[in-house]
Design goal:
The structure holds two protein chains of two kinds.
Chain A (H helix, E strand, L loop, with lengths): L2 E7 L8 E7 L8 H14 L21 E3 L2 E2 L21 E6 L7 E3 L2 E2 L2 H10 L19 H11 L6 H5 L6 H13 L7 H14 L10 H5 L7 H15 L1
Helix pairs in contact in A: 2-6, 3-5, 5-6, 5-8, 6-8
Chain B lengths: L14 H8 L5 H4 L3 E5 L3 H13 L2 E5 L17 E2 L11 H11 L6 H21 L24 E2 L5 H18 L3 E4 L2 E9 L2 E9 L5 E5 L2 E4 L20 H8 L4 E2 L4 E7 L22 E5 L16 E2 L1 H5 L9 H13 L11 E4 L1 H7 L1 H19 L8 E10 L2 E2 L12 E3 L17 H22 L11 H19 L6 H15 L6 H21 L11 H25 L23 H4 L1 E7 L6 E7 L14
Parallel strand pairs in B: 1-2, 1-9, 2-5, 9-17
Antiparallel strand pairs in B: 3-4, 6-7, 7-8, 10-16, 10-18, 11-15, 12-13, 12-14, 14-15, 18-19
Helix pairs in contact in B: 3-6, 3-12, 4-5, 5-12, 10-11, 14-15, 14-16, 15-16
The chains are: A alpha+beta, B alpha+beta.
The complex binds flavin-adenine dinucleotide (FAD) and FE2/S2 (inorganic) cluster (FES).
FE2/S2 (inorganic) cluster (FES) binds next to loops of chain A.
Chain lengths: 246, 637
């Protein structure tokens, strides 16, 4: 395959960025998208140019590191996969492909295609946990959890924290992330003692980080590589109202 | 140097209890006076950081990803073992201990492994309480599946994403402590060296990967939980960033490296598809619960798998190992897959693959049940290969997966350097020459949640800490060495990229220090690796500058360390004139091609000391004493 790559280059948070064009030939349709980027980067090194930086680690769609906005879509054209699981066979020969970082105010660009997502850690710090000290737990089978509740909790807990939804959302809302965590702990009895404080604190921190509010456009669900459902957002809203009236 | 394992005296089953009852403690109010550095926040480091912070210690934690939640542990799929015996199938702490010792081919310490089996039950309790959503039966009780090398069902799981759920559990406990200010988190920081003052590990030098600044960090103890070194092979199932740098830098400051040649090659991975391949993808061992491994009986059979009749298929694991069948341990399954491919019976275009077939299970259990158990793995397979495993058998081949070797530690998880503790995959301790499936998560969490909170306290309580600051000469000296190295890498400005050298090294490692090894090949590898290393230091091209984010520079430092480690792995493999677990020396096998151990001469841990530039390595032996089990020929027939 032959493609033309337009990659966002930006030296650091302070500098301005712009697209650079890199023609790429001899691309195999079996390459993953990131392997294609590796090949282009290797060729840049050969020409004594600086390769572009992008976040990645597991390359299996589970760590949430990769964070590329490809042809105007978070993680690219295929539904339900991360950029690292995307293969070149999903693109046409001769296609021009734009690659950009996530764009959202709470995610400042660090360099090229890499953004700062530490806002998520701070949201987690505000309440994304069950307070149980090491050593104080009862026997695992002392807490019974119906099969279907456990399955729903895993659905919510499958969020990889990549940030695609923020990038996809016109309001830069982080509701899908927060709602997935709140849902997981609402569906499980272990989460109940801290139910109210958790939702209030996490939502407050989310607002403080500058994420927008949700207007139910559904863009997040459509772009989520793990297909986390927006029904979690409805649950978050219910939990939020419930906590406020208490 | 005499290696002291410090295994407590007394009966095996009482050692840990007695140890805990008699160690010195630090009172809660005094704990906040101690600072602890935790490098690496995967399962081992994350659980340690959270637990120590809860106890009151001041923790500084480091990881090179942008968040602790992204450590390589997140990718673990199949599950975590625990001797709960919820299935009433005869499991016990003793049996998990025994399976692990035997699975490791009698090359691990009894005392450590028994403690691990004991603690396994507490881990499940802890994780459930954190809200980790393990799979449940319809009754609401915890579900189990089976893993290789065991005849009981003791593996707890969360679909095919157990590592993710366990890590998010540990991370959430960390997050609470981060919010409280008890853990100071340094994400996107890479440890580049260890600082030892008056015989005690007192700090690290780390590079801020965003700004490029090189910084000093002081503490009363340093914990390395930096993962394994499988990426020395370039292609492995490890995350791209996994590396040996932290452990290797500590090694070069004096920490012994134990059994570097013990590498696990996992039998069920998606085969290599081309030169562009950047990593290999594991298909969890749990699939062998319901998938059957086979190849065509006739070499060169190119028919589609569905059109090969039953009597022309060789279910070679079921045939050779009737009592364990498809669930033999990994080393055995991998070697047998290689053997049938070497006979020309491999499948797929490369002929380097065997089938893993779910047709029978889908018939028996239905597609929905299989999807519930393995859905995300099947999706991943389809995504990568463009083939549908619900309809076609998977094609699989062994790949580098896990490293049993690592920094040598005693029973307290302390290396031979005072105050330097090593946890998780980074240490050598519990798996001997082969790790059983679902035991790495168990070990990482046992180390972090339940061992280090005691053993670290006992060390700190001994006292004798000099008052030092980061202005101490030793900090200055080590920092300037780190700077020198960074500058050197950037100043070479040669012809070839870092990846070019990494791939070259990986090929030598896979061909000669991989699934099967022999003396000539290993000697050749040692010479080759030296050559590649020399070329690297004369010719590598590292782009960019030291300031700011520079991924080429990060990679260069890691590959430079792999180029040294690779040689030591080959040395270790060459010296060990026996086959055991994942270390298979062609010269030492039975007539049936099984590994042939030599307990008279090699029942020891080989711990290597770095002797300085151009002075090579010296090996120290820690004899393995078996009081409870007597090493026998490992049989899974
Ligand atoms: C695909 C896959 C599936 C697996 N499935 C299973 C399974 O089902 N069951 C099982 O028991 N085991 C499984 N394993 C093995 C298991 O996942 C690992 O052995 C285990 O997670 C290692 O945990 P760890 O905490 O020791 O290290 P890691 O999770 O590798 O964490 C290493 C940490 O160290 C940090 N780090 C490294 N170097 C530096 C440095 N220089 N400076 C700063 N930080 C650094 C990293 O940022 C990271 O935080 C699997 C492994 C793979 C590859
Ligand atoms: S690199 Fe881990 S999800 Fe893409």
């Amino acid at each position: 395959m032959k493609i033309t790559l337009k990659v966002w280059r930006q030296k650091n948070a302070q500098s301005e960025g712009k697209f650079e064009t890199y023609p790429a030939h001899d691309i195999s349709p079996d390459m993953s998208f990131l392997e294609m980027l590796d090949v282009v980067n290797e060729r840049l090194i050969e020409k004594n140019e600086e390769p572009f930086a992008f976040d990645h680690d597991c390359r299996e769609g589970i760590c949430g590191s990769c964070s590329l906005y490809i042809n105007g879509r978070a993680h690219g054209p295929k539904k339900g996969v991360t950029a690292c699981q995307l293969h070149m066979r999903s693109f046409d020969d001769g296609e021009t492909i734009h690659v950009e970082p996530w764009r959202a105010k709470p995610f400042p660009v660090i360099k090229d295609l890499i953004v700062d997502r530490t806002a998520f850690d701070r949201i987690m710090e505000s309440g994304g946990f069950v307070s149980v000290k090491t050593g104080s737990a009862p026997d695992g089978n002392a807490i019974l959890i119906p099969h279907d509740d456990a399955e729903m909790a895993i659905d919510a807990a499958s969020c990889i924290g990549c940030g695609a939804w923020v990038a996809a959302c016109k309001n830069a809302s982080a509701m899908l992330f927060v709602s997935a965590k709140v849902s997981q702990f609402t569906l499980l009895p272990q989460g109940h003692p801290e139910r109210e404080t958790r939702v209030l604190d996490m939502v407050a921190q989310m607002d403080k980080e500058g994420f927008g509010s949700c207007t139910n456009t559904g863009a997040c669900e459509a772009e989520c590589p793990k297909e986390i459902s927006i029904s979690n957002i409805a649950r978050l809203n219910r939990e939020f109202i419930r906590a406020n009236v208490r | 140097m005499e290696l002291q394992s410090k295994i407590p005296a007394g009966k095996l089953a009482d050692k840990w209890t007695d140890y805990k009852a008699h160690i010195k403690l630090i009172n809660p109010a005094n704990r906040r006076k101690y600072e602890v550095i935790v490098v690496g926040t995967g399962l081992a480091g994350g659980s340690a950081a959270a637990s120590l912070a809860e106890m009151g210690y001041k923790v500084k934690a480091f990881c090179f990803q942008d968040s602790p939640r992204r450590a390589h542990s997140i990718a673990a799929q199949g599950g975590i073992n625990a001797a709960k015996n919820y299935q009433n199938d005869g499991d016990s702490i003793y049996r998990l201990f025994y399976d692990t010792i035997k699975g490791g081919d009698y090359r691990a310490r009894e005392g450590n492994v028994y403690r691990l089996a004991e603690l396994s039950v507490n881990i499940i309790d802890q994780c459930v309480a954190q809200g980790v959503p393990f799979a449940r039966e319809y009754s609401g009780y915890l579900d189990n599946r089976s893993f290789g090398g065991a005849q009981v069902s003791r593996t707890f799981y969360s679909r095919g994403q157990t590592g993710q759920q366990l890590l998010l559990g540990a991370y959430s406990s960390m997050a609470k402590q981060m919010g409280l200010g008890n853990i100071q988190m340094y994400s996107r920081y890479e440890m580049l060296d260890l600082v030892i003052i008056n015989g005690k590990a007192r700090g690290i030098i780390a590079r801020n990967m965003v700004t490029g600044t090189i910084e000093r960090f002081l503490a009363d103890a340093v914990l390395l939980s930096t993962g394994g070194y499988g990426n020395v092979y370039y292609l492995s199932t490890n995350a791209k960033g996994s590396n040996v740098t932290a452990a290797w830098r500590a090694h070069k400051r004096g920490a012994l490296f134990g059994n570097p040649c013990y590498v696990q090659i996992h039998p069920t991975c998606i085969p290599v598809s081309g030169d562009h391949q950047s990593k290999l993808t594991l298909m969890s061992e749990s699939l062998r619960n319901d998938g059957r491994v086979w190849v065509p009986k006739n070499p060169g059979d190119t028919r589609a798998p569905q059109s090969i009749p039953e009597d022309e298929r060789d279910y070679f694991l079921e045939r050779k190992y009737p009592s364990f069948g498809n669930l033999v341990p990994r080393d055995v399954a991998s070697r047998n897959a290689k053997a049938v491919c070497d006979e020309g019976k491999g499948v797929g275009s490369s002929k380097l693959a065997v089938y893993l077939d779910f047709a029978d299970s889908i018939k028996r259990l239905g597609k929905d049940k299989i999807a519930e158990k393995y859905g995300n793995l099947f999706d991943m397979y389809k995504q990568i290969t463009a083939e549908n495993p619900y309809e076609m058998p998977m094609r699989i081949y062994p790949a580098v997966h896990y490293t049993m070797g690592g920094l040598w530690v005693d029973y307290n998880l302390m290396s031979n350097i005072n105050g330097l503790f090593v946890l998780g995959e980074a240490n050598f301790s519990d798996h001997g020459a082969n790790r059983l499936g679902a035991s790495a998560l168990m070990q990482g969490l046992a180390d972090g949640y339940f061992v280090i909170p005691y053993t670290l306290g006992a060390y700190l309580a001994e006292g004798g800490f000099d008052k030092v600051t980061i202005d101490h000469d030793e900090f200055k000296r080590v920092e300037s060495e780190v700077r020198g190295r960074v500058d050197k890498l950037l100043s070479i400005k040669g012809e070839h990229s870092v990846d070019h050298y990494h791939k070259k090294l990986g090929k030598v490692m896979w061909d000669y220090v991989g699934m099967s090894r022999n003396a000539d090949g290993l000697k050749f590898a040692i010479e080759e690796i030296k050559k590649i290393r020399d070329q690297f230091w004369q010719d590598v091209r590292v782009s960019g500058d030291p300031a700011g984010l520079n991924q080429s520079l990060e990679k260069a430092g890691r590959v430079a360390d792999f180029l040294e480690l690779g040689e030591l792995m080959a040395e270790d493999a060459l010296h060990r004139n026996e086959s055991c677990g994942g270390h298979f020396r062609e010269e030492y096998q039975t007539e049936e091609g099984e590994a042939l151990r030599d307990d008279d001469n090699y029942a020891y841990v080989g711990a290597w000391e770095y002797k300085g530039e151009n002075n090579g390595y010296q090996m120290h032996k820690e004899p393995l004493v078996f009081e409870e089990v007597s090493p026998s020929k490992r049989s899974y027939k």
